[in-house]
TrEMBL record:
It is a multi-pass membrane protein. Belongs to the resistance-nodulation-cell division (RND) (TC 2.A.6) family. MmpL subfamily. The keyword Transmembrane applies. The lineage of its organism: Bacteria, Bacillati, Actinomycetota, Actinomycetes, Micromonosporales. Its main location: membrane. The chain crosses the membrane at residues 12-31, 180-200, 207-227, 239-262, 283-309, 315-343, 369-390, 528-547, 554-574, 586-606, 636-657, 663-684. It comes from Micromonospora chalcea. It holds the Pfam family MMPL. This is MMPL family transporter.
Length: 719
């Protein structure tokens, strides 16, 4: 099959390239923008069966005048002394002056005695931010205009003010995020170009992946946006960055797989067209199997209850599918036309390989497979033990720089009020059947709510102006509302207490940011418990079909899962242990699933396929392991270094979430490429021997076999 594909692509190279150009232009021109299907609202990704979502829906119906978001103006004295009566009056005048400015998309400007901290350290002005969606850029402008007005309106008063809240925090950290992701994009390109220049000593080979994958990126975003419109999918704002990394990571892998084999065939004496046909024939199955495993891993996300994962899976599957087609058609067509010029001006491809690092490593694996397997396995298990101490962290704000205006204002607010003042837990009392709530029911429930576990302060109840059957009470928790303690409190104790306190004939629904994250926590745990086993089973099935074996897929999948645990454990050791963080970001396990489990499987497939190929050439298991590491090691090393280096750059960002993501994925890819694929898997395969290929005996020597290729140089191992 792949030989026929190779002959067609090479024989019709110009037609293949022309078809790609026409298709790319048509897709890019006709597709909607990816921004049309993005959402920044975490709660929008939860199923409606969760209580926090039901509370949000009830709030939208019963309090339609409620703002999309809020900005909290925190006012204090410049000398640090308690506010006086004159100061409080001046804050009231400030609220009126700000309101009179008619700043677009703002409303409310509420303050008064209830907005003064018990210790009189601060007074707040609550400003509503109105928009059709939480990710409306007009909200950012509203905060900027609000801040610009504070200085003139407080001039000469002896008071200072800062604006806190999620939108204000985003304004403060927007440049940091943009700079971080820009650095990632630039670093990715520099790493790809620089590393491939070192490997092949050719600017053409170095630029080829960058140019092709950039075009594929545009095509992919168009297809993803079109699919999102067609199937009503909402995706996170992070998707653009994730697509960039997935395409450059996987795309570079597949292109390297082809270039290494193409160079090998040229050294064996093939002409440029035959060399590419044989390369597609030999590597096509590996690339297709690797892409199939990754696509399956991404599509398994459709089983997730969190909409973010469910919509992310098809988008990434589309990206990998496009890259697969590109790798088997456009890349072979281009390289077959370039021929030896793809390695210009280097002449190294003409010379037989010398003794290299990868050859020495391969010899070590083949000579002592038991020792290598045990050493690499013990390392992975030791790192995996860190998972036992894993704690999820939902407090994004704590990971941002703490010298910004929003961070300082939030700290002042939390010192003066309960810790949960910036993100109150909203409790809705309703009869559920339209019957009006009585004052007695509302007052009794408000009194009980104030005494509920973990509540530091309860705001006066609000009756819905449009629905007399609904009332709302804002509770300020004693704990940081984004902390694990607060999330556990809401999920386990507070909800139960509030449900029990609802008067007969009524029910209570608990919402707000803490409740949303409590439900995300539950959904996240459920999703991982479903996704990992199903993905492991399907990847094992693909490996079984590729290898015609029942034994090898078992230990390959176990290796991948062990690598996942080792990566998470290493991150726990560094960030919870060495740095003393309360936990690691709750999104990390799924990020590791995307980039370590899914993409790491590529390296396993490349290595195991080469081991099988060497076994078919008549080499005994130990010798096949040695030659496999020598030949496939440089490709795995180069691909792993590029992807790990790309993520490693994120550790330079001053945001904890990005630092954790950068470290975790970088170390995960390093473990995948250099520990699991280069040592653990080949050593274990050599140790198990012929049994690894049972019952299909995929290692049996083919008729007419013999050394069909000159040994692949391992000069990439010098990188």
């Amino acid at each position: 099959m792949f030989e026929r594909l190779g002959r067609f692509v090479v024989g019709k190279a110009w037609w293949v390239i022309g078809g790609w150009v026409v298709a790319a232009i048509a897709i890019i021109a006709a597709s909607p923008s990816l921004s049309d299907i993005t959402s920044a609202d975490q709660e929008s990704f939860l199923p409606s069966s969760y209580e926090s979502v039901q509370a949000t829906e009830l709030a939208g119906k019963s309090f339609p005048q409620a703002a999309t978001a809020t900005a909290t103006v925190v006012v204090k004295r410049g000398d640090g002394k308690p506010l006086t009566a004159a100061d409080e009056a001046r804050v009231g005048q400030l609220a009126a002056a700000l309101k009179a400015r008619n700043i677009p998309q703002t409303s409310g400007y509420l303050t008064g005695p209830q907005a003064v901290a018990p210790d009189k350290s601060v007074q707040v002005v609550t400003v509503g931010l109105d928009a059709d969606s939480p990710d409306d850029p007009g909200l950012l402008d509203a905060v900027r205009d609000l801040r610009a007005a504070l200085g003139p309106d407080l001039a000469g008063s002896g008071l200072t003010a800062g604006v806190a809240g999620d939108v204000a925090s985003f304004v403060d950290n927007e440049d940091t995020f943009n700079d971080a992701f820009a650095v990632v994009g630039v670093a990715t390109i520099i790493l790809i170009i620089g590393l491939i220049l070192i490997i092949f000593r050719s600017p053409i080979a170095a630029l080829l992946p960058v140019v092709v994958i950039s075009v594929v990126m545009s095509v992919t975003t168009g297809l993803v946006a079109a699919a999102g419109k067609a199937f009503d999918l909402n995706v996170s704002q992070d998707l653009q960055t994730i697509l960039l990394i997935v395409l450059f990571g996987i795309g570079t892998d597949y292109i390297l797989f082809l270039l290494f084999r193409y160079r090998e065939r040229l050294r064996a004496g093939d002409d440029k067209r035959t060399a590419m046909v044989v390369s597609v024939q030999r590597v096509g199955e590996v690339i297709t199997s690797a892409a199939g495993a990754v696509i399956v891993a991404f599509l398994v996300l459709l089983l997730a209850s969190l909409g973010f994962f469910g919509s992310l899976g098809p988008a990434l599957a589309i990206a990998v599918g496009v890259m697969l087609v590109t790798s088997l058609t456009l890349i072979p067509a281009l390289v077959s036309l370039l021929g030896r010029w793809v390695f210009w001006p280097s002449k190294a491809w003409q010379r037989p390989p010398k003794a290299t690092l990868s050859r020495r490593l391969g010899a070590a694996v083949g000579r002592r497979p038991a020792v290598v397997a045990a050493a690499s396995g013990v390392l992975l298990v030791a790192l995996a033990a860190g998972v036992l101490g894993y704690k999820a962290d939902y407090d994004f704000s704590a990971g941002f720089p703490q010298d910004t205006e929003s961070a300082r204002a939030a700290q002042d607010l939390q010192r003066g009020f309960a810790a949960g003042a910036l993100a109150p837990t909203e409790v809705y009392l309703t009869t559920g059947n339209g019957t009006p709530l009585t004052d007695q029911q509302v007052n009794d429930f408000a009194a009980a709510s104030a005494k509920a576990p973990g509540v530091g302060r309860a705001q006066p109840p609000e009756r819905s102006a449009t629905d007399p059957s609904v009332a709302r009470i804002s509770l300020l928790l004693n704990e940081n509302p984004m902390s694990n303690e607060a999330i556990t409190l809401v999920r386990d104790d507070l909800r139960d207490a509030l449900h029990a306190a609802a008067p007969p004939g009524t029910k209570a629904l608990v919402g707000g940011a803490t409740a949303i994250f409590a439900d995300i926590n539950s959904a996240n745990n459920r999703d991982l418990s479903v996704i990992l086993p199903v993905a492991a089973g399907l990847i094992a099935l693909i490996l079984g079909l590729l290898l015609r074996s029942l034994v090898a897929p078992v230990y390959l999948v176990v290796a991948v899962l062990l690598n996942f645990a080792a990566t998470l454990g290493a991150t726990v050791y560094v960030f919870q242990g060495l740095q003393g963080n309360p936990g690691v970001t709750f999104q990390l396990p799924i990020i590791l699933y995307l980039f370590v489990v899914a993409i790491g499987t590529d390296y396993n497939i490349l290595m195991i396929a080469r081991l099988r190929e060497e076994a078919r050439e008549g080499h005994e298991p130990h010798e096949a392991a040695a030659i496999g590491v020598e030949h496939a090691g440089p490709t795995v090393a180069a691909a792993g270094l590029i992807l790990a280096g790309t993520f490693g750059v994120l550790m330079l960002a001053p945001i904890s979430f990005l630092q954790q993501m950068g470290f975790a994925v970088a170390i995960g890819i390093v473990l995948s490429a250099f520990v699991m694929s280069m040592f653990f898997v080949p050593a274990l395969t050599g140790l198990i021997g012929h049994t690894a290929w049972w019952p299909g005996h995929g290692d049996e020597r083919r008729n007419g076999g013999g050394r069909h290729a000159a040994p692949e140089t391992a000069d990439a191992a010098q990188v």
